[in-house]
Amino acid sequence: MSNSIALRLVLASASPARRKLLHAAGIEPDVLVSGVDESQVVSERAEDLCLELARLKAQAVVGRLRPSADERTLVLGCDSVLAFDGEILGKPADEADATRRWERMRGRTGVLHTGHCLIDVIHETRAEAVASTTVRFAEVSDEEIAAYVATGEPLAVAGAFTIDGLGGAFLEGVDGDPGTVVGLSLPLLRRLLGELDLRIIDLWTKVAPGGQEVEALGTVRS
Predict the structure, then answer these.
(1) Quick one: DSSP state of residue 196?
(2) Phi first, then psi: what are they for 184, rounded to 5°?
(3) Residue 85 pLDDT class (50, 70, 90 cuts)
(4) Class of 4-221 per CATH?
(5) In the chain, count of helices (H) and strands (E)?
(6) DSSP string, 18-70
């Protein structure tokens, strides 16, 4: 008789970029949006703010789940903020705000912090940490800023830019894990899983270097 149980990851985020990143890494999460009001949480340190928001998001989703004895469920909450010029920047308020930010950021650097909170629902254990990556912004023109803001992309993301979308062309580079800038650091996720006595390979649901599908691997010993 097998003593293995299914392992399930629930992503407490509506971010398609985070889900896409996990998918590319062979992980197929369920998605349950937390509904946390981010504007109600304040902090003077970017690292503390993003970690507290990640924790609140994960805890909100855990509270809506009904654990099953034959399934080990993990909930992952993430949140990203940009520390720039002494300020903590989340999503811009509107197009004018996004434009002002880019006029300040071009040619300079900021640090993108992403908080991660991983909760094991059955065992009621938690592992959490912040990943930080320095971002070097290109010296973009006024015309490029206006065109980028007009696409709407900067309005939906922390810091008013992406690395995996249109905004990637306006970055000179990053110093650190690019996944942190996307909103989820896979190396950090691997370390957090280790703190819960799990491996990232336990979450793999497909291995397809040539596009082939294989049976799910997401099981762990009970």
Answers:
(1) T
(2) -160, 120
(3) very high
(4) alpha beta
(5) 6, 8
(6) HHHHHHHTT---EE------GGG---SSHHHHHHHHHHHHHHHHHTT----TT
Q: Give tens-digit pLDDT for 3-46.
A: 678 899 999 998 999 999 999 999 999 999 998 887 788 898 99
Q: What is the pLDDT of residues 91-105, one digit of tens each?
A: 999 999 999 999 999
Catalytic residue among 48, 70, 79, 177: 79
| Amino acid letter, residue 197 | D
Phi, psi of 26 (to 5 degrees): 85, 15
Dihedrals phi, psi of 49, to nearest 5 degrees: -65, -50
**Any idea which residue has 């280790």 for tokens?**
194
Residue 134 in this model has a pLDDT that exceeds 50: yes
Where in the chain are the domains? Answer: 4-221
- Residue 70 is a catalytic residue: no
